[in-house]
Design brief:
One of its GO terms (molecular function) is serine-type endopeptidase activity. With 575 residues, the protein is mainly beta. The protein has eleven helices and 35 strands.
């Protein structure tokens, strides 16, 4: 009854914070309900120590100076020696997964084996668990586990080689075992070690009574047949599952490794792509896409979600409707696409595309195409039903424009869909950045005013890969939005967010440089997966990768990219 009251007062979001991934959230709700941490007199006293090489924690370093540590993971055997396992809710609720690093045997601030960054798109989580989290189906808490491939450390080592081994998984162990649990509470400098008897709980789970496992311990491994001399055992589960591990500091629940999760482990070991959302195509098809952009091409500006325009290597163009029927559903970002243009030489050789309001009269967006010879063509009032139509030329062939690096349109500094997106930010060949305002067509005549310099030549901007317009918030709340701004992806994998058109200093570095992240091909800010508080805010970000993977991040903020939903599985695991 008390839980029901809490949900009614604080909303579902508060209820979902009952896991152990984040210490402050967990502890605050415990105090709210109990006035102090619940006490279980039969709980085994846990001991602090330096830890074991195969078990570690996740550390995040954000550009605003915030450094966090949460959740635990364990190195498990794989042919590529780069696989760890943790609780699925650790990633599903994490803000800024691209900044996460796995640090084995972390203690007292030390990283004896270095750190291993998470590889974008290399996570294997149960489909039923992911769908259930967003209300698409009933949530399968018993499948609260995820396998993650991590990159190499600074020495170029894979994690299994660096720590000298991995812990085998037992997918057929009974729920009652002599169990060792190792976990990292977020507020301690050392991990905890507990030996106790595990037992069945609520049919599908297991439970153990160990004290001290407060917030931050989600994903802590459960071992049986533990050898204290070699610090090895068989992995039978992780802290998570029921109530994401429980609501008490001294009674923990765990996800059991069952045959249902064994198939997922095999897929992660051998890079078997996870399934794509039905109807969106394959990774092989999306690997031929050259860019993605956001616009309103179906139901008009008052619809609840945006649509996605994809340009392919042969010049064909497809538009994918925003999924307004299930805006909160897993994979609910877009629906199957409609071809609005078949193969076309001009589009195949295009330098860049952006979407905005360039003089078209109607309730839909216009599309601006920059051709290889420097022409600017406007396709007005584009709809899925009528296609691109015949373009109006804003500018004839131009050598300078032909060398432009990237461009994006927006109503910079404003919020919501009511403002005309008729400003254009363009990056020149030398890295200089220029803004054009009021561009478009008026009464059939071209209108391209003289640009205003925003930044002089720079090596950084000369290496820009793609631009988009987004409206990420300061902390995920619409009350602290910063208005539309420029989001820039660079060749080294860095992604920056700029307030409005102030491109001299980023408001935040959303993704730091990295080899894997350098394979991001295109990105687009919009509203797809759920509505941000306050309405139509472009704080979801779609990302297209070189291997054909298409993912969306929901409600991103200045600390990083939030929940990642895979819409299209990659054609191959590597880039």
């Amino acid at each position: 009854m008390l839980v029901a009251v809490l949900v009614a007062v604080l909303g579902v979001g508060a209820f979902l914070l009952w896991g152990r991934g984040h210490a402050d959230r967990f502890d605050s709700i415990n105090r709210m309900l109990h006035g102090q941490s619940p006490f279980n007199p039969s709980a085994v006293k846990s001991q602090t120590y330096d830890g074991v090489p195969t078990v570690g924690t996740f550390i995040t370093q954000q550009t605003d100076g915030w450094r966090g540590r949460s959740c635990n993971a364990t190195v498990v055997p794989s042919p590529q020696h780069n696989l760890v396992v943790t609780a699925a809710h650790c990633l599903a609720s994490y803000d800024g997964a691209h900044g996460m690093r796995f640090v084995p045997m972390w203690h007292d601030g030390k990283e004896p084996y270095g750190s291993f960054p998470l590889i974008p798109g290399r996570t294997w989580a149960p489909t039923d668990y992911i769908r259930g989290r967003s209300g698409y189906t009933k949530e399968r808490w018993d499948l609260d586990a995820v396998f993650i491939q991590v990159g190499r450390n600074a020495k170029g080592q894979n994690v299994q080689d660096a720590v000298g081994g991995a812990d085998p998984i037992d997918f057929s162990a009974p729920p009652s075992n002599d169990t060792v649990m190792i976990g990292y509470p977020a507020r301690l400098k050392y991990p905890l070690h507990c030996e106790a008897k595990s037992s069945p709980a609520f049919e599908k789970y297991q439970q153990i009574a160990c004290n001290g496992y407060t917030g931050g311990t989600s994903g802590a491994p459960w071992f049986t047949d533990w050898n204290a001399k070699t610090d090895t055992g068989r992995l039978i589960g992780v802290l998570g599952g029921y109530m994401r591990g429980g609501t008490s500091n001294d009674l923990e629940y765990g996800t059991r490794f069952t045959p249902e999760l064994e198939k997922l482990y095999h897929d992660a070991q051998y890079n078997v792509p996870q399934k794509s959302v039905p109807g969106l195509g394959t990774g092989a098809e999306w690997s031929k896409a050259r860019s993605i952009d956001t616009g309103d091409f179906f139901g008009g500006r008052r619809e609840r979600s945006d649509d996605l325009l994809a340009r392919y290597a042969d010049g064909s163009v497809r538009i994918y409707a925003g999924n307004r029927e299930k805006p909160y559903g897993w994979g609910g970002g877009i629906r199957p696409g409609v071809t609005v243009q078949t193969a076309n030489r001009t589009w195949a050789q295009a330098k860049d595309v952006t979407v905005g309001d360039f003089g078209g009269r109607g309730n839909h967006n216009d599309v601006l195409l920059l051709t290889r010879d420097g022409r600017l063509l406007v396709y007005r009032n584009v709809t899925a039903a009528h296609g691109l139509g015949r373009p109006v030329q804003l500018q004839g062939p131009n050598r300078t424009w032909a060398q432009a690096r990237a461009m994006t349109a927006g109503a910079f500094g404003t919020s919501g869909p009511s403002h005309a997106m008729d400003q254009l930010v363009v990056v020149g060949p030398d890295g200089s950045v220029t803004q054009y305002t009021g561009i478009g067509t008026r009464n059939g005549a071209a209108a391209l005013h003289t640009g205003v310099p925003l930044a002089g030549p720079s090596a950084k901007w000369a290496a820009v890969k793609d631009l988009t317009t987004a409206e990420v918030t300061a902390n995920g709340s619409a009350k602290k939005h910063i208005g539309q701004g420029v989001m820039a992806a660079f060749r080294n994998g860095e992604i920056d967010m700029y307030r409005g058109t102030d491109v001299l200093t980023p408001d935040a570095v959303l993704a730091t440089p990295g080899r894997e992240k350098s394979h991001l091909r295109s990105l687009a800010g919009g509203t797809w997966i759920g509505l941000a508080p306050g309405g139509h805010i472009r704080d979801d970000v779609a990302m297209l990768w070189d291997n054909g993977a298409l993912v969306m991040h929901q409600n991103s903020n200045l600390r990083g990219f939030v929940r990642e939903f895979q819409l299209v599985a990659p054609a191959k695991p590597d880039f």
